[in-house]
Protein: Major facilitator superfamily (MFS) profile domain-containing protein
Amino acid sequence: MGFLGLSKGDARAYYLGTLVCLGGFLFGYDTGVVSGTITLESYKRSFGYTDASEDTNARISSLTVGLQQCGSFVGCFAIFPMASRFGRKLSMQLSALVFVIGAAIQTGDTHDLASFYVGRVVAGLGVGGASVLVPLYASEMSPKRLRGRIGSGYQFLFTANYGVNKHISPRLEKQWQIPISMQIIPGALLGLGMITVPESCRWLVQRERCDEAWESLTWIRASHGAEVQDEMNEIVTTVVLERNCSRNILRSRVSLYRLMLAFTVMVAQVCTGANALAYFSPQFFKLVVGDGTDNLLISGIFGAIKIVSCGVFIFFLSEKMGRRASFCGGAILMSACLLCVAIVDKLEPPLGDGVVSGAGIGVIALLFLTIIVYNMSWGPLGWIYIAEVLSPSTRDLGVAISLGTQWIFNIIWSVSTPYMINSLGWGTFLFFAIINACSAVFAWFFVRETMGKSLEEMEKEFNPDIYDENSEKSMV
Structure:
């Protein structure tokens, strides 16, 4: 037994999972920190819009989040050909470097929103690249019994901006600069940490570098035994078999079904409303409890709940609850919670003036429950599921398409949510409740179970006829 009672192989797998969590920081912290920072008086003073109208504040909020999403969309597709040609490891390091540069640009107090917007776009390029590479690398390197736990680490977010914002004088620019600059830390650690791990064994096999692939696989499994040898043989067999069938791989109904499945899962994930809540949590809580309350404090608690609930899921439930049950049950519960929020907010509007009614407390509890359910279902599992259901030859492109579409919807919600809050009010919650109900129906009828199965076993499940035919030929 090794570190903390883990086998050497498990310890290495969890170390790789730690790097996955750092990749999650690039998305989670960068988007989460902005929702609180752009509401600070010190930030508004630095960029000269302290007396701006409500519409101007909504436009700045939309651009601040939306431009990062635009950069992420471009980065998502820009990194995919590089990952296919040069590997996951180098591509991940490049994404981390780009993100650090973007975070540094945002930290500078230039007194010019255009400069800050440029930093958002550049950081988004790195976020988009990492969003593609993390699921790919995690799914290709993790043992099947830990893949859900390790891959879900991308959702394992950390929210620290409340404590920094709250305890630095609002007269100082450091109040917003410190939480913004803290983004550099996970980006730098991710880039440097990738030096210590090998290239993806499955990518190396696809590039016909089997000796290096064997070294990579034996490193992450910490074994040269028969079980690892069987896994290596299975990987090679799957890649060779699919290469022989590659002429029709993109045209086959099964491949299109798998691409659409991954695509729809990511669209459903981003349309739960959880990301909108994360981006604009102070604005949402203002909607349900009114002015005069410490919405930044509530947002800080909201962020803490996200990481605790996601941590509970990763360490205790990720390999016990099936993917299909998690998706379906999660969507039903979120739909019910948001429907209740809409009804209460409609019938019992906030009192304002710093007074929170019993109905307001109940609504806050329901929103907290919504984000708990999200971080125990669609949040962590969406990232890993898309890589699990795609074939080796379509995995790079399929993940890029799925996440590219996800970024498009992120752009839509980041731009439209402030206006939805201002114009629809309680109807915003009803809207996301309906979407979640539709996602539950989709999960029940179309999602395939992948928990506990290797990527090669998923190939056999989706293409049983091809594998049976080739098995008969090999026996002959």
